[in-house]
């Protein structure tokens, strides 16, 4: 992108996994990137222009978004708390900011919009029959964006993993951050496929799509295929190879999660996602490939080495 054609984006959630990776990708693509954080502090990326404020404060969001070309909505209530009360007001503020600037609102979507028991393969316009609380909120978010008339880009993807993804299933379920990989706790039913999204590849996809904003429809939706593990063995095998060990693969103790869930918000949220580990749900990326020509893809072993290094499970030199 030429310097005189530089575009500006506000990223809500720029210190998080998908927001942080997308910020890095857009900076590489020549975008000017702004971030909104609750408090300016040492260690924030100096290449990003930081604004202080909360995503629940519409005035703060509007102030940070003044003059932008796009608003990237990658913010969620911390610790999975108060989703029912906070998620929709947050996205309403992002919609308002995008409309005020005739900017495109960008949303990283999920597989949770679908019922995996009845939708083994989902295309972008497959019926959204979410059976979980979080899934229904996700559907409501997308519906509100579409009904608002704002220019929008939604890219749905599988479960996130990557070097900066500290609260995904890899860290919260499969391995223990900061410790060598001695065992893998796998959530999936034997033989059930699962969709994963390596965040640097997803971030590059967002950057490529936004570089071609003029060619996008006003309401654009795509699916990111990412890593499709047909039976669970590809992901656990990559962990073992990256770790250089032969870890024991154990089943997730779902019954124990059920006992802990009433007293632990994170365990409650993880338990709600069990159907996505019992039934395969693959995202069809044909529309994305047709638009871009290809989907960014890092070999799984390389992606896993970087991810485990980011979690402190292997030395960075190994990655």
From TrEMBL:
MF GO annotations: aldehyde dehydrogenase (NAD+) activity
Gene3D superfamilies, sorted: NAD(P)-binding Rossmann-like Domain
Residue ranges of domain NAD(P)-binding in the record: 13-159
InterPro entries listed in its UniProt record: NAD(P)-bd_dom, NAD(P)-bd_dom_sf, NAD(P)-dependent_oxidoreduct
Pfam families for this protein: NAD_binding_10
Any one GO cellular component localisation term in the record: cytoplasm
Protein name: Membrane protein
Taxonomic source organism: Sphingomonas hengshuiensis
């Amino acid at each position: 992108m030429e310097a005189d054609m530089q575009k500006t984006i506000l990223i809500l959630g720029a210190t998080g996994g998908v927001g942080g990776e997308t910020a890095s990708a857009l900076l590489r693509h020549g975008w000017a990137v702004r971030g909104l954080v609750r408090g300016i502090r040492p260690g924030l990326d100096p290449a990003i222009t930081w604004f202080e404020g909360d995503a629940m404060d519409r005035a703060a969001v509007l102030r940070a978004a003044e003059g932008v070309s796009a608003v990237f909505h990658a913010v969620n209530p911390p610790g999975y708390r108060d989703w029912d009360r906070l998620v929709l007001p947050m996205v309403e503020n992002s919609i308002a900011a995008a409309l005020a600037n005739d900017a495109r609102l960008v949303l990283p979507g999920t597989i949770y919009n679908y019922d995996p028991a009845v939708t083994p393969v989902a295309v972008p316009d497959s019926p959204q029959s979410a059976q979980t609380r979080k899934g229904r909120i996700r559907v409501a978010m997308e519906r509100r964006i579409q009904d608002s008339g704002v220019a929008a880009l939604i890219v749905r993807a599988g479960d996130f993993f990557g070097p900066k993804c500290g609260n995904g299933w890899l860290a919260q379920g499969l391995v223990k951050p900061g410790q060598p990989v001695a065992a893998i706790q796998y959530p999936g039913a034997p033989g059930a496929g699962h969709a994963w999204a390596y965040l640097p590849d997803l971030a590059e996809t967002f950057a490529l799509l936004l570089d071609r904003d003029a060619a996008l429809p006003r309401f654009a939706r795509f699916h990111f295929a990412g890593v499709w593990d047909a039976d669970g063995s590809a992901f656990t095998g990559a962990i073992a190879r990256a770790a250089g060990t032969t870890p024991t693969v154990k089943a997730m103790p779902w019954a124990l999660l059920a006992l802990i869930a009433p007293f632990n918000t994170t365990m409650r949220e993880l338990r709600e996602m069990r159907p996505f580990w019992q039934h395969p749900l693959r995202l069809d990326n044909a529309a994305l490939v047709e638009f871009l020509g290809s989907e960014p893809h890092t070999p799984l072993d390389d992606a896993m080495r970087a991810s485990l290094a980011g979690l402190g499970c292997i030395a960075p030199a190994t990655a």
